[in-house]
Amino acid sequence: MTIEGEFIGWQVEQTTGNIIDTLDVTCHAVSVSNIVGIVGPRLSREAHVIALFGEKIGISVISYSATDPDLSNRNTYPNFYRTVSSDDTAASALAKLFIRFNWTSCSIVYQNDAFGLGGIQAISEAFNKSGLIVNQTALDFNVVGPYFTWILSGSVPLNSFNETFYQNLIGMFLIEPAVESVVNAPINATLLNAAYSIWQQYEPESFPGSMNVDNYALFVFDATWTLIQSLQQVCASKINISSLYLSFIGSSYCFDRRFIHSKLLLDAVSRTEFLGVSGPIQFSVNVTDRITGLYYSAKNAQSSSNGLSFVSVLEYSHPGDWRISTKENVIIWPGNSLTQPIGGALLKGVNLRIDVIESAPFTIVEKVIDVSGQSTIEYSGYVHDLIELLQNKMEFIPTIELAPSNQTYNGLVRAVRNGVYDIVIGDVTVTVARRKLVNFSNTIFDNSLRIIIRKTTDVNIDLFSFLKPFLQREDNEALQNQSILPQVVLHVWYSFGNIVGYGVEFHTNTAARRLLTAGLYILSLILAASYTANLASDLTIAKSKAIISGIDDIKNGKIPFNRIGILVGSAPEEYYLREISNGARNYYPLQSLNDLYLSLLTNMIDAAFWDSGTIEYVTNNIYCNLTIIGNDFDKRVFGIVTPQKWWYAQDLDVNILSLRQAGDLEKLRQKWFQAKKCPDSLETSTAIEIEAISGLFLVFGVISILSLLLFA
User: Fold this and answer.
1) What are the contacts of 530-539 at 24+ separation with CB within 8 A?
2) Is the pLDDT at 520 greater than 90, yes or no?
3) Taking every annotated instance into account, which residue ranges of this chain make up the domain Ionotropic glutamate receptor C-terminal (predicted)?
4) Which residues lie below 8 Å from residue 674, measured CB to CB, with a gap of 6+?
């Protein structure tokens, strides 16, 4: 092959990944030879520099393996092309692979260079468009099979691993660019056979056989053939080129040289279209990427008689979708299984740092002294039983840690956010503010808020309460404008006239009088019964009346706000600030649940509100002289606190839902929240005591004394 009667020469330079060294050898090569095009470099970080250098001196740069998506920008890299597909295409293929297997999340391990950073950006964007989750950190423990499915972007010699790890490597995937022959599409077989023939003729010792030639070698050939085809087009344009040497201007210093027919060659490369040894080759004036013949193969690590090897199982043709390989090999999944894994990691065998907070009956903490005199902590309660149920189903390894006594619930959330604990299990309410920091599992307990107060044992004695069933000033207009003395006279007269039914010394002897007498007796009977019922009702209400009746009384300021106890850093605090005080922290601050109970018992506060399940338990089993008042409000749920985008979220949610559907969570609720130890005798009695009607006896005493005086 000749150009203007001269053979096409070539020169090989070995790069090491060091950008400065790569630029140095390239500069030296173009200084001593009339280089009109560069095939390579291999790495993306090298290609960024060499592509700009090619623009500087006006020569084409065609890479066969640099895949960084940033290199696709034609405005930034006008002299750059590549015969390998971009990582954007690879990311699209990966997203479709996940959709094919119904996987929903992944973790990415990447190298910190242009190739790694560009790749993770491309994958993240493609996955986000498809609704898939990407975690950009690697786990600190065993992340190989059978718990994870690895997808490699580059070939790894499996025989380089110790044989003891082979079982953990089975099921790996290798996704790499492929040529058309791999996906059973047409290629330029004539050109490929000619290339193989030349290879075997001039360097037979390095020829591995036609079935073992690396795909990237075919990309290299097509990159070289693209330059040759483009040079022939330039020469065929009848431009007077006396020699390649005369086509350069400037000195021998590489940065001062420039290929004067650069634009012609670049235009020719952009227009070049042919069937190459890797598939159809065609470029665009808008991007640097190859726009046809983009293929990928998915290979699966499987055991064989020779150890481990990658076997082709799936094929991909952009922009289409994955299909089963023509060889129809069965996929072997991690764990040497034929069962396709789910879209998330499993907690089986994983060590979990679980934080719990003391809050009966969710977590009950007891110090137990063994026979040797050593003090140990024993846990019981709803949370402890829930952990055992989950552990039996999921087979994780729990390490339970007790939160400090001064730890707030918001502090627990931040501890998971900062990686101090893996998860927190307890009476932690799911709120909007907390969801911005962490995630929560499916519901483990349905919750609401209730008000807790001291039981009221003292009754305000009203000596004249027996008169209440008749008339009260605020309810009768006839009494509202009367002075005190007329009111007393009217009260006594009305009471006497309506209640007393007495006989007379004569008898009726006519039908009319007898009928009237019967009516008077019936009226007296009804009035007496009504009086008795109303008196009992008034005295019972007076006996059982609390300082407030519910949350509306707190909102209306029936008790001072500084007499309301609120636990700092809790969900009830958020409710108080949002619904009651409009952001003002005018409450009595509490640091723990024990602080809440003691503050009520020592009369530091008059009321507090907390989770219904907890205070129902403590008022029925621990603090018998505390009670709940009013209806529940602000209905919420409890969930297990997990990190955002946690690998095991799906596994945990599925198992919690399974426990709920099986009725196990309801059984736990009945076990821990229906118990009652407080005796009924301490409950508020509705019986009418003698003090409540003491005024009646007082009036009778006064009447008796007056009678004695009149008699005397």
Assistant:
1) 530/469, 531/469, 531/470, 531/498, 531/499, 534/468, 534/469, 535/465, 535/466, 535/468, 535/469, 535/693, 536/688, 538/465, 538/468, 538/469, 539/465, 539/688, 539/692, 539/693
2) no
3) 353-675
4) none
- Based on the domain organization, do 17 and 54 belong to the same domain? yes
Query: Residue 213 contacts by C-beta under 8 Å, 6 or more apart in sequence?
Result: 196
Of the chain, the end-to-end C-alpha distance in Å amounts to 154
Q: Does 675 fall in a domain?
A: no
159, exposed or middle or buried, with CB in 10 Å at 0-12, 13-18, 19+? Answer: exposed
Strand pairing report for 322-324 and 307-317: antiparallel
Secondary structure, 3-state, 233-264: HHHCCCCCCCCCHHHEECCCCHHHCEECCHHH
Which residues are within 8 A (CB) of 540 and not within 5 positions of it... i.e. 6 or more apart? 686, 688
Q: Which two tokens stand for residue 646?
A: 């946690």
Indicate the residue type of 43: L
Q: How many domains does the chain have?
A: 2
Residue 128: give the domain boundaries: 88-181+296-324
Residues 255 and 176 in one domain: no
- Residue 623 inside a domain? The answer is no
Q: Give every CB contact of residue 383 below 8 A, 6+ residues apart in sequence.
A: 356, 362, 363, 425, 426
> Domain check: are 280 and 239 in the same one?
yes
**Domain co-membership, 71 together with 121:** no
Rounded Cα–Cα distance for residues 152 and 447 (Å) = 46
Amino acid sitting at position 183: V
CATH code: domain of residue 248: 3.40.50.2300
Q: How many CB atoms lie within 10 A of CB 619?
A: 21
- 119 with 45, same domain: the answer is no
Q: What are phi and psi of 562, to 5 degrees?
A: -75, 0
Integer Cα distance of 310 and 158 in angstroms: 8
Rounded distance between C-alpha atoms, residue 120 and residue 113, angstroms: 11
Q: What is the C-alpha to C-alpha distance for residues 663 and 549, in angstroms, rounded to an integer?
A: 35
pLDDT band at 489 (very low <50, low <70, confident <90, very high): low
Distance CA 131, CA 95 (A): 9
What would the pLDDT profile of 226-262 be if each residue is shown by its tens digit? 999 888 888 777 555 554 444 778 777 888 888 888 8
Confidence of residue 455 (pLDDT cuts 50, 70, 90): confident
pLDDT at 375: 82
Strands in 151-152's sheet, in edge-to-edge order, are: 151-152, 173-178, 295-304, 307-317, 322-324
Q: Are residues 43 and 175 in the same domain?
A: no
3-class DSSP state for residue 81? strand
Residue 624 lies inside a defined structural domain of this protein: no
Taking residue 79's Cβ as centre, other Cβ atoms within 10 Å add up to 25
Q: Within 13 Å and on the Cβ side, how many CA atoms surround 555?
A: 10
Point out the domain boundary residue: 289, 316, 346.
289
Mean pLDDT score, 466-476: 54
Backbone angles phi, psi at 322, to 5 degrees: -75, 150
Whether 667 has a pLDDT exceeding 90, the answer reads yes
Same-domain check for residues 92 and 176: yes
Q: According to the model, what pLDDT value does residue 693 have? A: 62
Residue 411 domain-assigned (yes or no): no
CA angle 684, 690, 692 (to 5 degrees): 70
d(CA 423, CA 640): 7
What was the pLDDT predicted at 464? 61
In this structure, are 113 and 248 located in the same domain? Answer: no
- pLDDT tens digits, residue range 372-407? 878 888 999 999 999 999 999 999 999 999 999 889
Write the CB contacts of 366 (distance below 8 Å, at least 6 apart in sequence).
377, 378, 380
Contact 656, 444 (CB under 8 A): yes
- Report the alpha-carbon angle 570-572-575, nearest 5: 120
